[in-house]
């Protein structure tokens, strides 16, 4: 017997956090009965339906690293019929992105059907480091750079970069290229940080996720993670 949200996540349907939301909103049935209580223990031998879809058993776990291009939604589907990152991956498995990158943000995005790993990598307490390259408008003053290094309060919570570096300064065109590493996973967090400093982000790219990097992967291309890489992600625990 396992908790219902964990079984849903392990089936590859979605992450554990999203599974909990689906349960609370009455979208999950076990043997035809709606279950809304988190922590309810069931067996994978039970008939489990999520949004009317019967969960499949023994789905093969797959793991992909994508160099996300601009103008793709980091979601399984989009109500406005915009292209999603799922359409870039050639697989028969039901995958979803681990976290998200904005519509106009590029770079490293992981996709999988392994709910347990996705839940771990997305949970703030596990402090998985991500590195971004941001092109910002204007030039950071020394005091602004120092303030950023010490931490910026965003939505009532302080964000302290794990690493911060100025890669390029163009005084003529009035912009900078900043490398910033965070353990934060909040939506639009990099853009919010620089907006707080009155230096809007005009371009944003994620270069790394934990120990994984893009290397020479072209925009829109992807590769499967190796068994060694998957084990290393699990070992981060």
Main attributes of the structure:
237 residues; alpha+beta; Structural Genomics Hypothetical 15.5 Kd Protein In mrcA-pckA Intergenic Region, Chain A; Alpha-Beta Plaits; 3 domains; four-stranded antiparallel sheet
What do you see in this structure?
The chain is α+β, with helices and mostly antiparallel strands and 237 residues long. The protein folds into three domains: 2-54, RNA-binding S4 domain (Structural Genomics Hypothetical 15.5 Kd Protein In mrcA-pckA Intergenic Region, Chain A, Roll), CATH 3.10.290.10; 63-124 and 212-235, Pseudouridine synthase I, catalytic domain, N-terminal subdomain (Alpha-Beta Plaits, 2-Layer Sandwich), CATH 3.30.70.580; 129-209, Alpha-L RNA-binding motif (Alpha-Beta Plaits). It has helices at residues 4-10, 16-24, 115-122, 142-150, 189-196, 227-235; strands at 2-3, 28-30, 33-34, 41-42, 48-50, 53-54, 63-68, 96-97, 106-112, 130-137, 152-154, 157-159, 163-170, 175-182, 201-209, 212-213, 222-224. Strands 7, 8, 9, 10, 13, 14, 15, 16 and 17 form a nine-stranded mixed beta sheet that branches. A four-stranded antiparallel beta sheet has the order 3-2-5-6, with no helix packed on it. The model has no long low-confidence stretch (mean pLDDT 92).
